[in-house]
Specification:
The chain is of the alpha+beta class. 28% of the residues lie in helices and 31% in strands.
Length: 653
Amino acid sequence: MFQDNPLLNQLKQTMQEKIPKRTGIVKASDRGFGFLETDKGKRFFIAPSDMKKVLHGDRISAAITENGDKSSAQPVQLKQTDTTEFVALLSISDKRVSIKANNPLLNAFFKIKGAMQLANKGYNNGDWVTVKLLTHALDGNGFLVEVIEKVAEYNDPFAYRLIAVATHKLPNKAPDFDHPWQVIDPELDRRDLTKLPFFTIDGVNTQDMDDALYVEENDQGWSLTVAISDPSAYVPEQSEMDKEAQKRSFTLYLPNFNVPMLPRDLSDSLCSLKEGEKRATICCTLQIGKGGEIIGEPEFFAACIKSHFRLNYNDVSNYLENDELADGQWKPNKQLSQLLNVLDQATAARHQWRCDNTIVMKSQPDYTLKLNNKGEVYEILCEPRRTANRLVEESMIAANVCAGDFLAKNKQAGVFNVHSGIATDRLGKASSLLAEYGIIIDAASLATLEGYVKMRQAVAELHNAYLDHRLRRLLSYADTSATPAPHFTMGVKHYATWTSPIRKYGDLINHRLIKSVLTQQASTPVDPEIGAHLNEARKSQRMAERDVNNLLYCGYLKDQENSDWRYKAEIFDIVKAGCRVRVQENGATFFVPSSLLGKSSADAKKIECVREQGVVKVADQIELQLGDVIDVMLTSVKPESRQLIAKLADPLG
């Protein structure tokens, strides 16, 4: 009787129109409920029953209702969803077929199109698959998806690699091109330097070796030649292979696994600077003064070289760091010994000059996860940056600074690594913070490269980890630009990497630009959007690396859950909910909730984590701060969300 009453329907519509609406992004929790975050920064609670209609990350319009002092949002209309495809675990039984999204925040009920035919198509219970969203609950009757491809078999012990790359829409295998691999720039005059004793220093298992070094001592100091493999000699610009390399942008490195940017017969063979093999390269010879400064103009040129020695970091470090070597340890011959010692002297001078005149970042150890044939971590190696690492790093940094200046001068374009220092809207805050530590510098000076370098050198003398962390939070984001600009955090006017063209597409572009100057030929204009593309590609790779590493850490540390083992860890982030710390012995990241900082729940109520100041307070007294090294104990391992939860070993209170 009332169903088709036009007056009643009109009244309902009028009432609906009067309910306030807000548009924002859905943020799901792992406990069923969620929040609507508006563009103006307001948050409205979404009940679990309403969360069944939306997905994490959806942009929606919602009706806002008031209940006392609490506001809640009821989803009304879908504006946009980023969840068009996602990776899920497939469950197949006699009576039911279902999926569980790899992202625990996508916790909805998904109906599957053609579910009962999947087993006949070769899918098995426990397979990982990519699914496509066909209909959204706000647009139709629930969520409907379709399985479009298999990601990993149910019995693959290394499935987590394929899951990570599929989740972040990355390739899982090397590009495959049937190509004759002929040199495409025969007109380029290449010097024959095959008789010079160039050498490479890499990891023991490295296959894609892209840099070799040769050094001579002279009256002015040292002459250093950095030779970089030249894949642009084989990869035609705008070819299908080039487009695929641009799409990938980088070689992806995961534990015991990599997905190259270029075909393996290029990256690991024809372009790899293997010992005893003649290779096409682009070289830079620079003169380093006795004080470590770069003297005059560096010379860029094309050449053919031959690596005479294939070295690894450990052997070279052991040799240079010890006056006497044990029996059986690697020792260089007389020629190589002289080369390494001369390079060591040049490196020491160059490093000291950078400390005095630019900015040298604090060295961090590398953590290597060793895997068994079940895909599990059996050992984690903490490897500090040693002497051999510094030999290569200082050489590459010098070469990249030279390339930045070279491209800025000759092309006014390239792929530049840029950074503008303190964010513009935080300069005043940084100036006030520095004044608290006796470093007086105004905002205008901080905005200049010279002023920023002067400030960082003054901060370095304080050896204050807390101040370093506070300043880091005030920095702008690093960027990649097609036009020259300074790199504040390195303290240089220009920085353009070209030393890894096998692994980085931006370096391949810079190779082509350098060669266009050498041949005095026009070059293809650098796409002004290339920086945004490279940044996005690198972000996706880092997320895949994070997913894999966090999952492996969860498996490795599972047996330590609720044990009495104490880990030394540095606080690197403080938020309202607690602290994030990095374990020094293995590199794992733990989260310490504010509720686990005190002895009891009563103590926890007195604890305040202040993100703005980067401190933890108890009754307004600072007890912990960024940069502190504390003892923590692992309390919970959550592989589903890839989280490691810890408590303070010596609670506050």
